[in-house]
Amino acid sequence: MVVILAAICLGIAGLAFGADRFVGAAAQLATRLGVSPLFVGLTIVSVGTSFPELLVTTTAVLDGHSAMGLGNVLGSNIANVFLVLGLSSLLQPIRVEPEVVDRDYSALLLATVTAWLMASNRVVSRPEGMVLLVGLLVYYGLTIRSARGSENWKSRGAATEHGHLPRQSLYRSVAQLVVSLILLLLGSRLLIWGGVGLAKAMGVSELVIGLTVIAVGTSLPELATTLTGIIKKQDAIAVGNVVGSNMFNTLAILGTISIIRPLPITSENLSRDMPVMLLASLVLWPVSWSRRKGRGRVNRFEGGILLGLYGAYLYFLAGRH
């Protein structure tokens, strides 16, 4: 058991550090392009922090642990809203830009409902996986088009409130990306090995381990990035990271793994986990929307509610197993 727990801890550490280095290198490249913080959060940062989920889920599916892989995707989406956004807003209220509520929230809700409908026949097929990937490309295309029309596409760039990120050479940024990807791969292998061992040792299903231990572990980069965005007064990056990560998880990861191998869906996924994932997406609207000055705000009270909902979900999982 000690070896298993050590593997899980080392895997999570490798994923967290690798994702942090990946996001740092991506942010440097974004600084060169001079794109807006919201665009960076919705695309570059959210993709970087979702790489652990992608690698862990793909590794699990290729190793024959589809239930754990799917549990990681669903559990990560749930944790991103209830845990990451809840804990972050509990520490400090978060402002929400109007375009997140008007455009990105609607896209996330559509993606979530689409994925649930595709899973209703107990399998996500290869053609359906391709549809999900195309949907992600369309979303990114619309996001880029909208960002180009924004006044701060070139003006603010990836700056913080206190200045731009220090530039580094293109060679160093690329080298940092390569090293971070290696760390992510190693971390994902350790985490899957440890997760399978933990499921056997505790006598619980791989799905539950994927929904909890693996999902929280792979969501740590989102938590760290969101907290960093709040500390640096970049709420746009913080909220955009959560929404963008859930979009990437739903469309890119589910699409990729179902193309590799048609993804089986269990009755528990349909009756419990996907409805909770949809609830997490629905809850984003009332806690983010506000009439005041065209901006929304996730306050501490609402953050406490989100954490309470996550606690209730974990309690329900524990009671069923």
Gyration radius, in Å = 19 Å
Q: Element order, helices and strands?
A: HHHEHEHHHHEHEH
CATH architecture heading: Up-down Bundle
Care to count the β-strands? 4
Can you walk me through this structure?
With 321 residues, the chain is mainly alpha-helical. It has helices spanning 2-33, 37-62, 66-91, 98-119, 126-148, 170-202, 206-231, 235-260, 267-288, 300-320; strands at residues 94-96, 123-124, 263-264, 296-298. It contains ten helices and four strands; from the N terminus they run αααβαβααααβαβα. The strands form two sheets. It has a two-stranded antiparallel ribbon. It has a two-stranded antiparallel sheet with strand order 2-3. It starts with a helix and ends with a helix.
